[in-house]
Structure formats: structure tokens, C-alpha cells
Amino acid sequence: MREQYSILLAVAAGVLILIVTVVFALIQSPELLNFPESPLVKSAVVIPHQVDGRRDCVRCHGARGVQPYPARHTGWSNTSCRKCHAAANNAVQMQAEAASAEKKRSGQPMPHPLPGREHCDRCHGPEGILPYPDDHAGWHNETCSRCHPQGDVGQKQG
Amino acid sequence: MTTKLVLRSVLLIGVYLAVSMAPLFAMLIGPTPPGRGFWREFSVALGFAGLAIMGLQFFLTGRFRSLTAPYGIDVVYHFHRAVSLIAFSFILLHAGIIPLAGPETLHLLHPATSPWWMVAGIAGLLAFAVVIATSLYRKQLGLVYERWRGIHGTVAVVAVALAMTHIGGVGYYAQGYVKRGLWIALIIGWVLALAYVRLIKPMIMLRRPYRIEEVAKERGRSWTLTLRPEGHRGMNFMPGQFAWLTLGASPYSIREHPFSFSSSAMEPDRLRMTIKELGDFTSRIGEVRPGTRAYLDGPHGTFTIDRHGAAGYVFIAGGVGITPVMSILRTMADRHDARPVLLLYGSIRWEEITFREELDELPARLNLRVVHVLEEPPEGWKGESGRITAELLARHLPADRMAREYFICGPEPMQKAIRNAMDRLGLPMEHVQSESFNFV
Ligand SMILES: Cc1cc2nc3c(=O)[nH]c(=O)nc-3n(C[C@H](O)[C@H](O)[C@H](O)COP(=O)(O)OP(=O)(O)OC[C@H]3O[C@@H](n4cnc5c(N)ncnc54)[C@H](O)[C@@H]3O)c2cc1C
Q1: Would the pLDDT of B56 be above 90?
Q2: Residue after which a domain boundary falls, among B252, B279, B300
Q3: In terms of CA atoms, which chain B residue is nearest residue A18?
Q4: Domain carrying residue B272
Q5: CA distances from B413 to B190, B276, B320, B352, B436 (A)
Q6: In chain B, whose CA is at the least distance from the CA of A72?
Q7: Rounded to whole angstroms, how far apart are CA atoms A51 and B186?
Q8: pLDDT tens digit sequence for B294-344
Q9: CA-to-CA distance for B41 and A75, rounded, in angstroms?
Q10: Does residue B386 or residue A117 have the better pLDDT?
Q11: Are residues A157 and A120 in the same domain?
Q12: Domain-located, residue B403
């Protein structure tokens, strides 16, 4: 009897606390209720590429992806990205965003033309004649041009 | 319960809920990092709530009389047990949801890449699992009570410390004075509760020692210890209450056992406890020498007529469950209390009825009727035998049965059977008080 009373009290407290945890989670991440987007969305970078068919953001932007998100995003899930990062909704905006993203890239421009030299790792891999820095280890040929724009190709041949 | 106690009990429940939810509210105050998806945030909130509840357990088990008085310490202990299962499920869910909601976090579990705060989190989870498993399966694991208590107290502290380290290491909701301040306040609270229980309270007990004056054999493989206070006035208790008894050199020992007072509350300087030989401690109680030092932590409990006033009482005792009832009867006699009392007392054999002779004499000093119920009656026995059933109750309960307060103390199955019987007879169940000797 007294034990049942205690159990009832504990269950009531547990349920109440559980409700508060759900409310907390909804306030922090309201996507389950489709709340209006948070003001953070406005400050976050717009996604400069198509998102259809690319739902697994973490694949490219995870800590080990080709274009990793900042360290403070570590451990975030795919469901979180679109909460702050809006997708460009037309080709013009996409181009503008891509251009601005391009500007932000810090990689050195390539001092040679790219066509015909798509196997960057032949020269720039660890065994190549001009290897990329250690922190590029594991990156693929397809990703180089994302950060290294083709420079003034008329000047040098490499 | 008086209005004051009711108000205090509501207030304490409010404070309990507020403290266990405080980390959740604090997370939303001050600089708040962006959400990381519903499930992720939900699981983090569960982890925070789980730890806050676990931390509060230090207060629940600290035997703070101001906290336990409105409910009774048994209710608080049962609550402690039930809520720990809820908190542990919160913590398990916390650990389970994060990798499910964000598989990219799985690398945190890889031994090669696991950061220190993740190691602390996993170790904390395992420590909580040990605390829960050893409590649920103590007997199956063959752990004696004292060893279990040692493990329980130590591992619980380690688990909470590891969980706190985990939260500090993740540091996601750790910015701002409010969040940091709250966790620091919680930690200080936990440490103070522990320091009170482990250091300050034993120190207070050390200054209020008792000496065993007499060890007297009773019927039914029981012994009565008489305790005399040394250098103080003893313990004021309400008849029916109990205290934790430590025998020997130091109150810092974890070898303490709860026993009801069997003496009259009118004699706070001559306390008696009647103890039945049962296990490793109690079976050697007859060997305790007069002169031995003793310490008491008490009084505790709500199984007392002083908190449940009525026109008359019915006591139902089984075996050694007679001890708190005896304290009540002796007190009523000393107080010249004229209210009518019926005692239904179940024992195995006639020779084993503890306090039999005194119970024969008490009706001369008290408006008391005693009905003995024997499981193995002697030949020619004309009294009641077998178990206390609805029929037996119906035969003996007085005409004013609806106006009486009922007190049951005995083994768990007996208590259950009597409650069922009383329910069948349509007796007022809200006027039934019970004491269980195995709630700890
Ligand atoms: C409120 C209350 C009042 C009690 N009043 C009396 C009384 O008046 N007379 C009496 O004979 N008995 C009383 N008991 C029971 C008594 O405390 C146990 O029988 C005793 O502690 C058993 O100890 P042991 O080492 O001899 O037995 P063990 O065989 O070691 O243990 C038997 C069982 O007793 C419990 N137990 C063991 N050690 C402790 C401990 N240190 N603290 C709490 N429980 C323990 C455990 O559930 C254990 O499984 C009371 C118990 C409670 C909770």
C-alpha cells in the first residue's frame, strides 16, 4: 500500500519530467512540430547546391567528409542541417551562393589547366612529385577543384 | 496528518520536481547553442534529467528527518527505489537515442577515437548499471546486506561523478553563468548531503552515545536490549517508531540495523529494542555484553498512534512485528489512555509468543483485549488458530470498527492477506497503517 503510493508518486514525477524533456527538445529543435524557422537560419550559409537526392549531408560534410563542417558542428545529424542552412531555391541564387562560397575557399589556385589532368593524385598524392600536405590525406581527385580553382592557366604549364 | 505536514509534503514534492528539472530550464537561459535535431536534444534532456534525479538520491537516502517526516521514511525509500529505475531508463535512453538519431556519432564509441568525456560517460553508465543490478538482484548475487550497502554507496557516488565529468567534457550546454552556476550548485548540494550523512551525522551520534544496560531473553527466539543514554537525556520518540542501531566502537560503521522501540515512549532515557534471531547480526544479539557502546540514528517512522488519532485502535501483529505495537501499548498504559484497543496477534506456537506474560497483565492497566492466533496450536487449544482471515476479523472486530484506526505489522504476505480481508469486510482502508520490516 505505502509502496504502491511511492511507486505512483515516482511514476507521476517521471512522467512530468519526461514531458518537460520533450518540451525542451521541441523548443530547441522544433522541426517535429514545424515551427517557424529559427533566426539562426538567417545567419547560416545557404546551401549552394541541389539538395534533392543528397540527403546524407554528413557524408560530404561530416568530420571525415570532403567538405567538413566546422568543428563545433561535430556529431550533428542530417536532420539538423536544414534547420539553419536553407537551400538555394533557384538557379540564380545557387550560382550566386556558389560564387560566394568559391570566394570563401582558401585553396591555392591551380597553376595549370585541369582538363586531361583529372588524376590529381598521380602528381599530388603522397607518392607524387609535388605531394599535397598531410592534412589532405584520403581526399579524392573529384574534390580538389572544390577548393583549388583553376588559376591563370596561360602563365605556367605544370 | 496535520495541515502543516500536508503543506510541507506538497512543498517538498514541488522542490523535488523543480530541482530535477532545473538543468532543463537552465539550458534555455542565457546563451543557448542551436538545436541539433529533436531526437538529439530529447536524448540530451533525458540525460540531464536522469543525472539530476540520481543526484537527488543522496538527499532521499540521507534520512533527513525534516524531509522524511511528512511521508514516513519507508515511503521515501520506496520512492528512492522506483525513481532510480526511472532515472536509469532516462540515462539508458539518452545513451541509446544519440547513436540512433545520429549514426555519425558512432565514431565517439570507437576505442581509438573516443574522447575522454565519452569514456567517462560510458563508465558512468556502467557504474549506474552496477548500482541498479546489485540492488535488484542482491540476494541472487549472494551479496550480504552490508557488502551491498558499501558497493551501493560507493559506486553511486562514482557514477554521478563520471556522469558530471561527461557533461562537463561535452560542454555543449555549459556556456553562461546560469548553466554553469546551476551545475556547480547541484554538485555542492550533493557533496553537502554526502558530507552530512557520512561525516556530520555520525559525529552528532558520537556525542550522544548509549550503553547497553541489559540483554534479556524473550520468548520466540528474541532478545530485549535496554539502552541507557550516556551524558544526555536519551531519545524522545513517538510509540511505534524505530531507529538504526550501531553496536560497538564507532557510529561511522555501515553495520547498522533498524529496530523498532519496544519500550514506552514515556521513558526516553531507558530505551528498549526487542530483536529476533534471524541472520548474521541478529542471531548473535544474545551474545552482546552489558556495557557495550551503542549509537542510535532516529527516531524514524510514521507507524504511531501519535500521528493517527482515533476513538480506538485495532492492532494486528505477526511474530516479531509485535515490537512497535508493544511500544504503543506500554505507552498507552503509562499515559492512562482509556481508548479501547484490540490486539490480534499471530504467532507460530504458544511457547513462542513474545511478551506473552506482559500481554496477559496489560488489560489491567489498559482497555485492551488480546486475541492470540496460533499457526500450530497445542492440543486442547480453544482459541483462534491458522491465519488471520476475514472471518476471524469479523468474529472479533468491535461494533465501532468503522471509527477505529488499524495498525498492521508483520511479514509482507500476512500484511497483504489482511488488507485483502479488510477490504472484503468494507473496512475503511484509509485508516490502515502498516509497517514493513524489510523496506530497507
Ligand atoms: C522499520 C524496521 C523496524 C524493524 N524492527 C525490528 C524489530 O523491532 N525487531 C526485529 O527483530 N527486527 C526488526 N526489523 C528487522 C531487522 O532490521 C532485520 O531483521 C535485521 O536488520 C536483519 O539483520 P541480520 O544481519 O541479522 O539478517 P540477515 O540475514 O543478514 O538479513 C536478513 C534480511 O534483513 C535485511 N537486513 C540485513 N541487514 C540489514 C541492515 N543493516 N539494515 C536493514 N536491513 C537489513 C535484509 O533485507 C536482509 O536480506 C526492523 C526492520 C525495519 C525496516
Answers
A1: yes
A2: B300
A3: B46
A4: 210-300
A5: 37, 19, 14, 20, 11
A6: B172
A7: 45
A8: 999 989 999 999 999 999 999 999 999 999 999 999 999 999 999 999 999
A9: 12
A10: B386
A11: yes
A12: yes
- Considering B271, B300, B329, which residue would you say is the last residue of a domain? B300
Query: What is the interface pTM, i.e. ipTM, of the complex?
Result: 0.88
Evaluate if residue A71 carries a pLDDT over 50.
yes
For chain B, the domain total comes to 3
- Per-residue confidence band for A38, with pLDDT thresholds at 50, 70 and 90: very low
Model confidence at B106, pLDDT cuts 50, 70, 90, reads confident
Residues B251 and B329 in one domain: no
Q: Do B35 and A1 touch (CB under 8 A)?
A: no
The verdict on A47 and A28 lying in the same domain is no
Instruction: List pLDDT tens digits, range B271-281.
Output: 999 999 998 88
In 3-state terms, what secondary structure has residue A16?
A: helix
Cell numbers describing residue B255: 553495520
CATH code, B367: 3.40.50.80
pLDDT at B28 over 90: no
Q: Write the pLDDT tens digit of every residue in B132-191.
A: 999 999 999 999 998 999 999 999 999 999 999 999 888 888 778 888 999 999 999 999
Q: Are residues B53 and B201 in the same domain?
A: yes
Interface size, chain A vs chain B, as Cβ–Cβ contacts under 8 Å: 143
**Mutation target vs A (from B27, B41, B98; most A CBs, 10 A cutoff):** B41
How is chain B split among helix, strand and coil, in percent rounded to 5? Answer: 50, 15, 30
- Residue B323 CB less than 6 A away from ligand 1: yes
Same domain for B146 and B22?
yes
On the 0-12 / 13-18 / 19+ scale of CB atoms within 10 A, B228 is middle
A58, A84: one domain: yes
Q: Is residue B210's pLDDT more than 70?
A: yes
Q: Is A2 touching B (CB cutoff 8 A)?
A: yes
Q: Is residue B308 part of a domain?
A: no
A132 band by pLDDT with thresholds 50, 70 and 90 = confident
Say what the pLDDT of residue A106 is: 62
Domain identity same for B141 and B250: no
Cis bond leading into A113, ω under 30°? Answer: no
Question: Which value, in Å, is the radius of gyration of the alpha carbons in chain A?
Answer: 24
Minimal-distance CA residue to ligand 1 atom 41: B257
Domain that includes residue A92, residue range: 37-105
Question: In chain B, what's the furthest Cα-to-Cα distance?
Answer: 83
* Cβ contact B339:B332 at 8 Å: yes
Residues 118-157 of A with CB under 8 A from B: none
Which of residues A108 and B167 earns the better pLDDT score? Answer: B167
B46 to chain A: which residues are within 8 Å by CB?
Answer: 18, 21
Suggest the residue from B104, B179, B430 to mutate for an interface test with chain A (most A CBs closer than 10 A). B104
**Atom in ligand 1 nearest the alpha carbon of residue B261:** 8
Q: Please report, for the domain that includes residue B290, its CATH number.
A: 2.40.30.10
| Cα angle B187-B133-B19, degrees, rounded to a multiple of 5 | 25
pLDDT > 50? residue B20 = yes
Look at the alpha carbons of A133, A137, A139, A141 in this order and tell me if their dihedral is positive or negative.
positive
Which residue's alpha carbon is nearest to atom 49 within ligand 1?
Answer: B145
Mean pLDDT of B196-216: 94
